[in-house]
Design goal:
The longest helix has 30 residues. The protein is mainly α. The two termini are 31 Å apart. Helix 1 runs antiparallel to helix 2. The protein has two helices and no strands. Keywords: Membrane, Transmembrane, Transmembrane helix.
Length: 63
């Protein structure tokens, strides 16, 4: 769980930095930053879900 939080914080900072750098005359391009962070959240959620489902398969006895 700690790895998930650290990863999401990293992607939050990166998406805000990209939104700031590509914003042009505005302070921050919220659509771009939010979209990048949403992709990161979806990817990390999928990775977390796949890891849990694989762990459940290993726990089953197979009998």
């Amino acid at each position: 769980m700690k790895r998930l939080v650290i990863s999401l914080l990293f992607f939050l900072v990166v998406s805000l930095a990209v939104g700031l750098l590509l914003s042009g005359s505005e302070f921050l391009d919220w659509g771009l930053a939010g979209g990048l962070f949403a992709i990161a959240v979806a990817g990390e959620g999928l990775r977390f879900w796949l890891g849990r489902s694989r762990a459940k398969k290993r726990e089953s006895s197979g009998i």
